[in-house]
Amino acid sequence: MRRIALALAAAALAALFADTTFAVTDVESFGPLQMELEHRQQNDFAPPLDRTGRKQQKAVDKSLALLAKPSSGFAKDAATGRKIAGVLQKAFRDEFAAGAPGKTADLPPLLDAAAVGLAGSVRDDLNRVVDGLALVPENKVGKIQKQLDKADASLSAADAATTPKKRFAKVGKAAKLAAKAQKLLDRFGDGGGGDRMTARVNGAAFVSTVAQAEYATGDFTLQIFGSRTLGDGTVETIFLAVRGVTGTGPYALTPENSMGYFETGRFPAPATTYTLVPGTGILDVQVLDTSTPHVRATFAFDAMHDVEGLVEITDGVHDVTTDVSVRGGNGF
């Protein structure tokens, strides 16, 4: 849920600051820092500059160059933040000194805000792994929980850190542990043969708490459904229906043969539904056995909301061995 919000925040920031390019993953957390640095770059270094001015200009330029490098995720964001904090602290010693008045939007609070926001994003990732533990065989839970505990300890250490540089370092360690926990969940999260759907929604892990499949024999429509309830009560759902699925193999999603959506919301507020973009995506069926039963397929598609924008569903895996229903008639 958070990364969808981050994508929307990025779009809003980009609209307000058309000349700003964001390369970090967590735009919401780093955006104010980057915009302050760009403001200083454009306004604070008119020649002639003394030695301190040149040093500060170089530090701002280097920091913006680091922010412009493409990020591979939260751990990379944390490493970038740690480097920037070190560069800026050396150049702007007065602002980092205890009790220094600084500027209205001075650098230490902006760095701290970026680190704290990034820690919140990592915490969201950890919570998603916790949500998926119910699908993991009992003898495998301990391996994942060990990584979660270490990550939690690192986030606690980040909260207690006395400088932005140290805070970013602890958040980066937690992000790496969160990623490791997610990989273990992806590996072991089959519930010992239970039903599940996993995917990535704009890059964020989705692990279902409910997964179902239905097959309509009239027009050979296979429907797959997965949903999960997050810790704050938000319910996320992925649904895909494809007509003409007569056996295993890949099926391109065309406007004629498919319908689907990603939906997110928290009661009592109305849900936000992103509908399948016609002509995008694929359903690849590996198992279609309605008697045993067992349905397994991989999938990916784009979904669009008129206001909120695009959601990319990738790396989808639907594996159902119990909740498979068969009916006559047409699927849609």
Produce a short descriptive summary.
The chain has 332 residues and is an alpha+beta fold. The chain has helices spanning 2-16, 27-43, 51-68, 74-91, 93-96, 107-132, 138-160, 164-188, and strands at residues 196-201, 204-207, 210-216, 221-229, 235-242, 249-252, 258-265, 272-276, 282-289, 294-305, 309-320, 324-327.
Distance, first to last CA: 29 Å
Mean of residue pLDDT values: 86
Strand runs, count: 12
Element-level helix/strand string: HHHHHHHHEEEEEEEEEEEE
The number of domains: 2
Number of helices: 8
Sheet with the most strands, sense and barrel status: 12 strands, mixed
Radius of gyration: 23 Å
Form type:
elongated
Strand content: 25-35%
Poorly predicted tracts of residues: 1-20
Binned, the helix content reads: 40-55%
Structural class: alpha+beta
Descriptive key words:
332 residues; alpha+beta; 2 domains; 8 helices; twelve-stranded mixed sheet; disordered N terminus; elongated; 12 strands
Description:
- With 332 residues, the chain is an alpha+beta fold.
- It has two domains: 2-186, no CATH class; 196-327.
- 44% of the residues lie in helices and 26% in strands.
- It has eight helices and twelve strands.
- It has helices at 2-16, 27-43, 51-68, 74-91, 93-96, 107-132, 138-160, 164-188, and strands at 196-201, 204-207, 210-216, 221-229, 235-242, 249-252, 258-265, 272-276, 282-289, 294-305, 309-320, 324-327.
- Strands 1, 2, 3, 4, 5, 6, 7, 8, 9, 10, 11 and 12 form a twelve-stranded mixed beta sheet that branches.
- A hairpin with a 3-residue loop joins strand 10 (294-305) and strand 11 (309-320).
- Mean pLDDT is 86; it is low at 1-20.
